[in-house]
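Hi P.,

Sorry for the delay on this. The queue was packed all week, but I finally got your sequence through. Input first:
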Amino acid sequence: MKDPAKVFLIISIMFYLGTINAQQIEGIVKNTSTELPVGNVIVQNLDSQTQVLSAPNGAFQIDYKTLPVDLRFSASGFESLNIQIKEEGVVNIYLIPLLENLSEVIIRGTHIPGELHRIPAAVSVLSRQDLEKTDPTNFAQAFNNVPGVYVNQGALNTTKLNIRGVGARSQYSTNRIQAYFNGFPLTTAEGELTLDDIDPEAISRVEVIKGPASSLYGAGLGGVINLFAEEAGRGTTASVNTLFGSYNMTRKSVSASHGSDNTNVFINYNDLQTDGFRENGEYERKSLLANVKLQTAGGNSLNFLTNFTRLKAFIPSSITEEALINSPESAASNWAAAKGFESYDRGMLGVSYEHLFSPTLANTTTVYLNFRDAYEPRPFDILKEERVSAGARSRFNLETAVFEKLTRISFGAEYYREWYESGTFENLYREFENIGSVLGSRLSNNEQDRNYSNIFAQLEMELSAKFKIETGVNINSTQYRLTDLFVEDEVDQTGDYKFKTILSPRIGATYELQRGKNFYASVSHGFSTPTVAETLTPEGQINTDLLPETGINYEAGFKGNWLGNNLYTEVAFYSIQIEDLLVAQRVAEDRYIGRNAGKTTHNGVEMFINYLYVPFEDFSIKPYFNASFNFFEFKEFEDRDNNFSGNKIPGVPESTVNLGLDISYGSFSIYSNLLAVGEIPLNDANSLFTNNYKLVNLKATYGFEVLKNLEITVSGGVNNALDDKYASSVLTNAIGFGAAAPRYYYPGNPRNYYTGIGGTFRF
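Then the structure:
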């Protein structure tokens, strides 16, 4: 074989055959939280057992013989990922951090996205892993892991969140907090929010902006909650999960997903039922969510999101202190006799389009439609409500240079219109013994058409590599037309009403001491308009004299990473000054009127610490700690002949401390959590307080493969492991009528258990 031509021919044939039998897959590995590339990822071909490392820019190439091919991606600090590649082309691989490097998390809920550590505001993130640590039947409880947020939960359908004490005086629901789901509003035009309708399995991430944020989103004196829907990984999957627990609790869910370079589809259906711990506490919720994202030419994207919920939840209501101690499972006698409940069909549909005009100019426009059809029998009347709302929001983002300084500008407008009709009827349950609520004659009939509009702008400027400032402003106009359709009372409140136009500015700055360690300070203005419930009088009429609450938030804090980014710390000091405080004044049993009454001051300290220790591959220990210390009081507050100025604000614990320890080895994880809640003032006079309490919750999960493409996950947990007796929610300023004692307390569940099993098949 001395002929050079023959040698060259043989080598060429061998090379050609090698390229046939060993083709290459190319791709880029990214962090799901930051979308930044991940280097030094071990990419293993499970068919041939060959492996390569990804480059610092996340790029990799690995040989394969035939498609489909099974690849495994693993890296220190990330969850391992097995994925099957079925077609040629460059693939994007997203790895989930075991513990998010919080200083580098990109916050998407602000108008100008940025790294968490460089945003001059108190922002907390609940990742997918954080949501999986808690009882999957109770999404709202995950917010207790956010310092500054406290969850009052009388039942699964009566959740009240307050942020920094704002919203604590709400009687039955969350208000004064704005919330968005993939950019579509969850909060109604009149300010009420229900998070219980959304199943945690349908959520990938939550961002909480604490304190007045009206310069970003309009009404929302307490803050803003941004939820992001779950998305599909690459490929096609189907999942089925079941859960069983105490009080005949069952939860069934089915999910399907498909992800490719240009298409991402996630669909989830779930059915939750429980008899509840208390009498008259049955609960049933069915919900369906679909999240579809399409990537179009030029990097533009289209997002469709829809969620539908059907709920029927009975209401045990609040009870006396004696009942809390001796018979916490009992319901209030009048609610039990009336078999009071709430039921509704609720849905939302939104479409969002992001268009890139150039690398430095983009527009995101959303249009949305929400509806709610509700029926609620209460002992004192029966309420029927219909709400339909529609709106649009358009935002431009521009990156440019001003005075040779990198500057990002966001500006746009939002318009939201809501048609609301309510009517009350007599409840004749006393005349029909053991039947429950019976519809009687009409007591009121009103229509409200609310128009809510915002014009907003925000500017962020890099004055130096370490110093950044941002400023923003929002102009809000809220007006409504009231149509009184009830003529029997000879009172006609029909007319056009308008709250004063509100200007909400904000300014903030952040200074980076060194990479991942930042000081920040900000001043922001916020407001909240009265809700429909606050404007209604006991006679079903509208109180047109109420004013919006307004407030200014002064804040300073520090965010920093330590020990090679394994230790993350935050501390925030704030003071919120609120005027035209809206309070609910009790005038009869279970009857309230809203009124403006004075000023409050909310001073507090929040801190958050978490740490990741990885002694060896696939094993991690993650302790965390967060705490809030609250100094909330009435600055000026006179109620009739009583002067409560200087008293503590009721409904908010004086402190909360949250300790947790997560341990993971491979596919086995144990989550443990201790929540300690301080005393809560029960009335404006501060003559009565709840006892402090501690809750210990535990959960374990284990996943394993039974077939090549089928993964099984089993889980189990216990809530309130120490069986502490406590009030999970309180009704402030309760009054006993006649010889009855006041009903301040909603008892929390005693020790309870759950266990589940689920399967995911990858096609």
